[in-house]
Design a protein that fits this description.
The chain is built from 17 helices and 13 strands. The chain is of the alpha/beta class. Bound molecules: uracil (URA). The site of uracil has 6 residues, from helix 9.
């Protein structure tokens, strides 16, 4: 089928065959199909959607565009975890060590932060000396030795998605469930895990802002994972406020350490336990979620999960003393409090605005090539559902540069919605699950 007819078919609301989708994606990667044609097709998909079979075909076509990672040299069931992107989301730093501590291998390829959401690699690199650039043999060897490695992507994984995602980003066609599901799942499946647990974020600051949309995305991804023979499950979690209290690379590592040593914010601990229980069951380490939860709680409270993080830092060349004494992690030169302008209850905290404020302080990048400041960020002193008095500190800004502070200060203040309404409760953390 000519590209013109293929685009027209979707514009008219028709359904593509698998062969047509495979041919179109191959043509796009080869350069036979232009950016203009691919963008037109994405826009047609945006309005007319993809069926479940079309999503699976697109996933297959994208996987076939590049390398697939073979993790069979690592013994045991490899369970991967993916979050659709949130603010203050440091779950991988906590979950990886917890999962390794119950004996399941955690071989994770992560990404860098771009835009308002942070990336696990940047957080890890705030630990002095730590490298995330391990070649494949060293990655596999480390997982065999300590049960855990978190590294940057190696190999030419899903080049079709790199090209298509960049195009979608430029043409306002990112927010389509079929395109997002195929984009995420092609990378997860090509990365080689046997089972996949997805954390689909929902709320302001996430791709999906309502629960029905988040559920539709979760169901689409679970369907794709299962149809490729990977046991897949999803949790829908709230992003109507950031996860935990810290936003910013070294600040988030400190919070992860606190959680791994039995403390940390309640919502972060809870999400890690819920996601971890799913991983433990899919990975065959536990019979059910209740048994898994007990086992995982122990790893946080008896230091075995923290010990796994220490081993990871040591193996990946980082300074273990900075983990044992988190005050040695990068710290900003100055701090400023953001004070409550009125009394009431915090109703919501705009995650998107806080993510953008963190970026303005220097903790994230606008373009891939931007450098970041590991030390800066925001610590929330109030969370949704809490009462405040006028003049209380809502958040502490950790900063190194006055111009950047000025760009962030008001945005942080505006992110807090303070109401005088009675009975404002904390927004729910877990909004649903899909098996
Ligand atoms: N993350 C991805 O990897 N792809 C998308 O399309 C959206 C979020």
């Amino acid at each position: 089928m000519r590209a013109y007819e293929f685009i027209l078919a979707k514009r008219m609301g028709e359904t593509h065959s698998e062969a047509e989708i495979v041919d179109f994606i191959k043509g796009y990667v080869d350069g036979r199909i232009s950016d203009a044609q691919a963008a037109a097709w994405c826009m047609a998909v945006y309005f007319n959607k993809l069926s479940r079979d079309e999503m699976a075909a697109l996933t297959k076509a994208m996987i076939e565009s590049g390398d697939r990672i073979n993790l069979s040299a690592i013994e045991g069931i490899k369970v991967d975890k993916h979050s659709t992107g949130g603010v203050g989301d440091k779950t991988t730093l906590v979950l990886g060590p917890m999962i390794a501590a119950i004996g399941l291998p955690f071989a994770k390829m992560s990404g860098r932060g771009l835009g308002h959401t942070g990336g696990t690699l940047d957080k890890l690199e705030s630990i002095p000396g730590l490298t995330v650039e391990l070649d494949r043999p060293r990655f596999v060897k480390q997982v065999g030795k300590i049960g855990l490695a978190v590294v940057g992507q190696t190999g030419n994984l899903v080049p079709a998605d790199k090209k298509l995602y960049a195009l979608r980003d430029e043409t306002a066609t990112v927010e389509n469930i079929g395109l997002i599901a195929a984009s995420i799942m092609s990378k997860k499946i090509a990365a080689g895990a046997d089972a996949i647990v997805l954390d689909v974020k929902c709320g302001r600051g996430a791709f999906m802002t309502t629960v029905p949309e988040a559920r539709e995305l979760a169901e689409a991804m679970v369907h794709i994972g299962n149809s490729f023979g990977r046991k897949t499950a999803a949790i829908i979690s709230g992003m109507d406020q950031p996860l935990g209290r810290a936003i910013g690379n070294a600040l988030e590592v400190k919070e992860a350490i606190a959680t791994l040593t039995g403390g940390g914010p309640e919502d972060l601990r809870e999400l890690c336990l819920v996601l971890g229980a799913k991983m433990a069951v899919l990975g065959g380490a536990c019979r059910d979620a209740a048994e898994a939860r007990l086992l995982l709680e122990k790893t946080l409270d008896n230091g075995t999960a923290f010990e796994k993080l220490r081993l990871l830092v040591q193996e990946q060349g980082g300074d273990v003393a900075a983990i044992d004494h988190p005050e040695r992690l990068p710290g900003a030169a100055r701090q400023e409090e953001v004070l409550a302008p009125s009394s009431g209850t915090v109703k919501a905290i705009d995650s998107l605005a806080l993510g953008l404020s963190g970026m303005a302080l220097g903790s994230g990048r606008e373009r891939k090539e931007d450098s970041i400041d590991y030390a800066v960020g925001i610590v929330l002193n109030k969370k949704a559902g809490q009462k405040v008095n006028q003049g209380d500190s809502l958040a502490t800004l950790h900063y190194n540069n006055d111009v950047r502070l000025a760009a962030a200060r008001n945005r942080v203040l505006e992110a807090f919605q303070i109401t005088r309404e009675p009975n404002v409760s904390e927004p729910p953390l877990i909004l649903g699950s899909v098996e």
